[in-house]
Amino acid sequence: MKLKDKIAVVTGGTRGIGKAIVQTLARQGACVLFTYLNSDAKAQELEASLTKENLKAKGFKVDVKDFEQVNAFKEQILDKYRTVNILVNNAGIIRDKALAMMSPEEWAEVIDTNLTGVFNVTKCFAVTFMKQRQGNIINISSLSGIIGISRQTNYSASKGGMIAFSKALAKEVATFNVRVNVVAPGFITTDMTSNLKEDYLKHVIPQIPLARFGTSEEVASVVLFLATDKSDYITGQVIRVDGGLGMS
Ligand code: NDP
User: Fold this and answer.
1) pLDDT at residue 213 above 90?
2) Strands in the chain per DSSP E
3) DSSP class of residue 85?
């Protein structure tokens, strides 16, 4: 058990990559407190299936866009669990559209969720991490935030902003023994990519050196590495999990 007695917070844990992260960390002994936006039934299912395995996980309905909700969630869990050791900022959305057609609302919703959401959650837990002189923050960005993807100006900006945020914070908190790293997935099979058209897939898959989409578990295993002491000397880094797509 690589994470025995650790308390982990994972945002957006009900589906896709977040769900795989919750399962992976719980199976390594962590008590995982995960958030979601709407999926009450999925959260209960996940809790129940992990409890059946004698593992610890609990879901909380918390909108990462809303600082007050996030702060109340932090108070609630610190009250009960006293500490948090690992934070995975995974919650994210897309609203893909050409810039010419993109509404200010579509811009703002993506920035508010993917970037301000990371600020809200990280700000709430960073002080705890600094006070206890231990903390591990892992942010799920995207290849889109590194290379830019057409029709994703809102999403690329949010994910690129998250990388810059993470590097700045890594420098700011390193002396408190707090690490901040980023995982940047390429195309991963989840609900988020389930609507991609056949034509687009025919165009994109040949561009991926490993010639397939990745799985949520393949992202979660990199998160696990960053969450353990096996990565103790790594901070401020961006690790791509993209089948080689963004290779330069
Ligand atoms: P999914 O759409 O499958 O799941 C998104 C999760 O985020 C859900 O649990 C959802 O909760 C939660 N969520 C969304 N908005 C909020 C909010 N405002 N507050 C709290 N929780 C929220 O996404 P993926 O698993 O595909 O993606 C996970 C992360 O990985 C995202 O940050 C995404 O940008 C990133 N990523 C994904 C890639 C891919 O190809 N799939 C590629 C690169 C990066 P609910 O179930 O309640 O809606």
Assistant:
1) yes
2) 7-10, 31-36, 56-61, 86-89, 135-140, 178-185, 238-241
3) -
140 Cβ closer than 6 Å to some ligand 1 atom: yes
Domains and CATH numbers, the chain: 7-241 (3.40.50.720)
Percent of the chain with pLDDT over 90: 99
Beta-carbon contacts of residue 133 (< 8 Å; ≥ 6 apart): 176, 177
Question: Is the CB of 73 inside a 6 Å radius of any atom of ligand 1?
Answer: no
Interatomic CA distance for residues 248 and 245, integer angstroms: 9
Q: How far is the CA of 217 from the centre of ligand 1 (A)?
A: 14
Q: Is 52 exposed, middle or buried (0-12, 13-18, 19+ CB in 10 A)?
A: exposed
Q: For all residues of the chain together, what is the average pLDDT?
A: 98
List residues with catalytic annotation: 155
| Rounded Cα distance, 20 and 23, in Å | 5
pTM value > 0.90: yes
